Amino acid sequence: MSEESIISLKNVNKWFGDFHVLQDVNLEVKKKERIVVCGPSGSGKSTMIRCINRLEEHQEGSIVVDGIELTGNLKNIDNVRKEVGMVFQQFNLFPHLSVKENITLAPIWVKKMPKAEAEELAMRQLEIVKIPEQANKYPGQLSGGQQQRVAIARSLAMNPNIMLFDEPTSALDPEMIKEVLDVMVDLANGGMTMIVVTHEMGFAKTVADRMVFMDEGKIVEEASPDKFFNNPESDRTKLFLSQILHQ
Amino acid sequence: MSEMNEVRKPPVATTGIIGWLRINLFFNWTNSLITLFVVYCLYQFIPWILDWTIFSADFKYNYLGEQITNQEMCSRNLDPENGGACWAVIYVRFYQFIYGFYPKVEVWRVNLAYIMLAFALLPLLYTKLPYRKYFLYFTYIFPVIAYFLLNGGLGFTEVSTNKWGGLLVTLVLGCTGIALAFPIGIMLALGRRSKLPVISMMCTLFIEFIRGVPLITLLFFGMVMLPLFLPEGIDMDGLVRVLVAVTLFQSAYMAEVIRGGLQAIPPGQYEAAKSLGMSYWRMNLLIILPQAIRISIPPIVNTSIGLFKDTTLVIIVGILDLLGIGRGTLADTNWLGLSYEIYFFVSLVFFIFTFGMSRYSLYLEKKLKTGINMGAD
């Protein structure tokens, strides 16, 4: 089982000061698996996925991504980050660069791709997220939904094996959420390994292979979407689901 | 035709010149009163200043038609009722104001350096310049060319820096100080924010020490103490010593200004860059610094203007910059008492340079703002 795992978290612990934000977290993710992580705010779900590409450092336990263990070794961190793409709640596009430059920057400077090739790649990625016509605009000129799709294209341009999504639709207006989710569904159907932190339960039901529910720094429940939504085991999960599904 | 009527225009009284006057100058009675008062003051002042500086002024000849060679021949000294400024002092001492005591035979080298400076600045000021890339190469090698041109070597006769003076010294100090302090300041700012405690502490100590000491003290330090740190037998040029002091001073200020810009960059920008696999240096060079410097343009120009003016302090360690030459001229019995003219001229030259810098920064801010929305919308 664990030989197939592309991501493996074992007894991961992390503290912010005295606050125990991750408590003995164990998670195995297989290749091409789609995991949706949910839970109340402050439950450590963002921190957990940010540990996977070392935006946060874990203090105990081990995290192995695609056979590379995350330690203080800078070379390992660089290699993991090349494998793992990330999409943020606040998009985090580079405001001083055009959409096309946002996407070509990392391929050109990190992968040493020739400029023409990188631009071709950028246009292909923009086709995938369905906004090729915005290539020469600046992030400030785009809507939130368009910015988030550019952010996805920017990550995909590095050809990652794993994509992490940290509440990708939480900062969007309701009518823009769908355009971003559509792109993510396409990506999931294309066989990308994905870990998505989201409260979009509709999305979870369509694409997730497995649901992970976190509360107070612990993984409370792990189940298939079918079981998770219809027949959850823990009371905490039931309470959470009743709150978010019956608003 | 009825559709034409539907395009309603704003009321006449709020547009055009009349509208502008009404809104800005005569909005209510206090506003009108202030406007009238200011107009009256300008009416009194402008003719007087124009008369003094231009219409009644002596440029080369006094009102008797004689060429002025000392202060006694100025119209205003011959006949206090007649005559304004006596610009002849500037005319006679112009060479010193611009070149100091640079030998006349070699002065073409200074002129060439001035012209080359203009060409070196061109690609920095106008990013749309055709063939900008090649101009930039020139900008990079300009300091080396200027060094040999002004100082001598490579077949040029040596002109010792104690013969330099006036605008030449002001520009050498100002340009070199600003140009060197910029990269050093960036390194110090990054260093101060570094996660490595040794580097961060060293940068912080350096910045706080230099910032906590008056420039004059640093100049004395450069003059008197710097040679003590050098191995025996190596003599450091006086101007270079001052230049080191000025650069250190400016880089500490520049570092703090750029650190301010760095702090304004949201952490998400660092995270996005890291998640794309960028190294520390790439992240800073490609993502963070371009944004931080853009934000810091007004304070960067502010400290640069400050330094340009502060170069006048070198007078106390015996280097004669533009102001120094002015003071020297005033001490000359031939030109005693012409302080208005000399200080006016020196102020004007400084103003032209600093005003140019200030306008350029406004232009930059406007240009870089297009299409950029910093932070979240």
Chain-wise SSE layout:
The complex is a heterodimer of chains A (247) and B (377).
Chain A: E1 5-16, E2 19-30, E3 34-38, H1 45-52, E4 60-65, E5 68-69, H2 74-83, E6 84-87, H3 99-109, H4 115-128, H5 144-156, E7 162-166, H6 174-189, E8 193-197, H7 201-207, E9 210-215, E10 218-223, H8 225-230, H9 235-245
Parallel strand pairs in A: 3-8, 3-9, 6-7, 7-8
Antiparallel strand pairs in A: 1-2, 1-4, 4-5, 9-10
Chain B: H1 2-6, H2 16-24, H3 29-55, H4 75-78, H5 88-99, H6 107-125, H7 132-151, H8 167-192, H9 197-211, H10 215-229, H11 238-263, H12 267-275, H13 280-310, H14 322-331, H15 339-369
Helix pairs in contact in B: 5-14, 6-7, 8-9, 8-11, 8-13, 9-11, 10-11, 11-13, 12-13, 13-15, 14-15
- Tell me the span between the first and last alpha carbons of chain B: 43 Å
Uncertain spans of chain B: 373-377
Please give the CATH class of the largest domain in chain B. Mainly Alpha
What's the total helix number of chain B? 15
Biggest interface between chains: A-B, 30 and 25 residues
For the secondary structure, the number of strands of chain B is 0
Shape of chain A: globular
Catalogue the unreliable spans of chain A.
Answer: none
Structural class of chain A: alpha/beta
- Class inferred from helices and paired strands of chain B: mainly alpha
Within the largest sheet of chain A, what's the order of strands?
A: 6-7-8-3-9-10
Outline of chain B, from the CA principal axes? globular
Mean pLDDT metric of chain A: 90
Distance between the termini of chain A: 39 Å
Task: Give the strand content of chain A.
Answer: 25-35%
Radius of gyration of chain B: 27 Å
Number of structurally distinct domains of chain B: 2
Structural notes for this entry:
The complex is a heterodimer of chains A (247) and B (377). Chain A is of the alpha/beta class and 247 residues long. Chain A is built from 9 helices and 10 strands. In chain A, a hairpin with a 2-residue loop joins strand 1 and strand 2. In chain A, helix 3 (99-109) crosses helix 4. Chain A starts with a strand and ends with a helix. By secondary structure, chain B is mainly alpha-helical. Chain B contains 15 helices and no strands. Chain B has helices at residues 2-6, 16-24, 29-55, 75-78, 88-99, 107-125, 132-151, 167-192, 197-211, 215-229, 238-263, 267-275, 280-310, 322-331, 339-369. Chains A and B meet through helix 2, strand 6, helix 3 and helix 5 of A and helix 12 and helix 13 of B.
